[in-house]
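Quick illustration, no need to memorize.
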Amino acid sequence: MPDHMAVPGLISDDERRFLVAQAEAAVAEFGPKVNVVNVGVHRGASCYCLRAGAPEARLIGVDVINWLWGSPEDLAWLDLELWLGDSRVACHAWRRPIHCIFVDGDHAEAVVRADIRNWVLPRVVPGGLASFHDAHYGRQSEHHWIRLQVWAAPAELGEGWVEREGAWLSRCFERKG
């Protein structure tokens, strides 16, 4: 099994532990065969963390290009269904409930809104988790539109959601049951 803490990627160690914990929470709530979605795979660090927390889950990664890092053995362990394409199109092929989703795809405000509208709102089950990366908690950055969008996520999500503890640049919400 590869070390999910060592896979190259643009997430902090705290966020890696956070993702493992999110996947573990979904397994604890729904059982080992949960559906876990990662929008914006990049090199795969977040996928490795989600797999570490949910070893028997159906793990889906959505990205416009295959950037995945790893040896053939590592990638076999990851057991990822990689859907290549725009998340705004790929969502139409997904027909299952989602127990845990990590959104870190295209950073344009319209795409973040679309990911919330297309992946999170109609598919995350009550008790399920939706996490968003690059939520800068008020910091100025080149991704200010993401900060503003995810800062407004509670309004986008509606009253049926409660914010849970996040990690560094990630925010997490749970759908109320």
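The chain has one domain: 13-175.
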